Amino acid sequence: MPTVSFPLPYLQRLTPITPKTLADRAFYYGLEAALEPDQLTVDVTAERPDLLSAEGFTRAMNIYGGTERTVPDALPASGRTLKVLPPVLPLRPYIGALVVENITLDEAALASLVQFQEKVTHTFGRQRKKIAIGLYDLDQITGDVTYTAANRADVKLTPIGGQSALSAEAILTTHPNGRRYGSALAGHDSVPVLQDSRGQILSLPPIVNAAGVGEIKTTTQNLLVDVSGISQKTVCEMLNILAHNFLDTGATVKTVVIEHPNGTFTTPTLVRQVITFSAKTINEALGTAIAKQDLGLHLKRMDLMVKGTSQVHIPTYRTDIFSDVDVAGDLMVAIGTDNLQPEPTAIKFHLGSGLPLHDYVLRISDLARRMQLMEVKSFILTDPDILSLFEPSRLIAANAKSRTHSSVRGSLQPGILDILSHHISAPKPLNIYEIGQAVQSGADGTLYETFLWSFACLDARASFATAKSYVQTMLKALKVPYRLESCHENRYISGRAATLMVGEQNVGHFGEISPTLLAQFSFPEPVCSGEIDCQQLMQD
Known about the structure:
Elements: E1 3-7, H1 8-14, H2 19-29, E2 32-35, E3 39-43, H3 54-64, E4 77-84, E5 94-101, H4 107-122, E6 131-137, E7 145-151, E8 156-157, E9 166-167, H5 168-174, H6 176-181, E10 190-196, E11 201-204, E12 208-209, E13 223-229, H7 232-248, E14 252-260, E15 263-267, E16 273-276, H8 279-286, H9 292-299, E17 305-307, E18 311-314, H10 324-335, H11 356-370, E19 374-375, E20 381-382, H12 384-387, E21 395-396, E22 407-408, H13 413-421, E23 430-441, E24 447-458, H14 464-478, E25 483-486, E26 492-502, E27 505-513, H15 515-520, E28 527-533, H16 534-539
Parallel strand pairs: 4-7, 4-14, 19-23
Antiparallel strand pairs: 1-3, 2-3, 5-13, 5-14, 6-13, 7-10, 8-9, 10-11, 11-12, 14-15, 16-18, 17-18, 20-22, 21-22, 23-24, 24-28, 25-26, 26-27, 27-28
């Protein structure tokens, strides 16, 4: 949860609300705010990047308090174009821009703008990997802007605060911003470059701006603002937020045409997004009985416009509303938890029940404990070397952090015998069991997930008869008729194993573990073991 600090003098420029009232109102809005002598510190939730700016925060507080906000229906065109060239697509494919004219930047306003730029790109922008914001002096830019890529060694510019020109390679390896954000361009020999029509480099997105054109001062009156990133949707959303922020300062915001290899579009936009909602669903979520025609009166405090009986129009600075559930959350804030009066007839109680398979598995586990078996647990991701002793690996994780946890198990026996092998010095007999999920292959080769029960016994007297007694006791308690057939699994000693048949279905097997496996696990004494498919057992 990022924390932002807003200078009180700048807040008073944006709203007539007193600082004390702002702090109190923020609490009812769902934000933690602390009033200090010269600033207001606010903890902002991750889904509301618009509140990271002083403009966005005061906008929300003003509207929440009932103050009307007026914005134009559409933004005028700046007449400028930003061209995206194909070489940059593999590096950082999306960019958008806007133009700001007649902006007033005193020290407090500039500090607030820079704070928003840094906070939003570090949190919402994932350290500039997802999005990055660039600010430029528009009066120093000639013509249209081009966004392309060039070799690291061929690009040279003087970064902000620098005294001489550096190559992009030097910036990435020696400049503080290069070392901090260079990972966003890792694996590429080229870098993104933003330049104007006369070849002047404005920046190396998302690393650093060029000195001069990329330096914003209190005397700057006109801005070009760009947002670059890896998602077109996220880039456009951030530009929309910036447009609202600049509008709330009294500046003029204009659009820029983006000529992209995938098509031409214009940024930013003030056209509200429309989602459908159900008053019934919202009321059920809150336990209220608010009439449809009254919902708009409440949601107006959150700058949500209700049209008709099933549509709500969302301002483009709100990136957190997708469905009825989000609207219900805003409605709760608008009403206020202190004023929320649940309607008893609107509250529905749902009595849950366990899945039949899970109830069946719990019953098997209870019976296993009654047979004096000790329960153990192993991971569904296991060591492929151990698994290969029993069966080939069906699924292997492509991004596993450890080889010992990289293969999805199809049987519990490898894991349970591995656990047993780590306790061979314990007093005998050692009788353990496990119930867990595994992935197996059907007759047509498709993979499916199932629950297995597996047990193992380490003891000088462990035998086929021992394993059979556990299986028979379990099936008798479950009242499942069965028959035994010969088993040819390599994991067992030939002639000392059986396949468990229920009807015509093979549901498991048991027997004495083969000498080969005993040696692999270094067992000093015989081991008997078995495994049953709980899901097939229940179905049959």
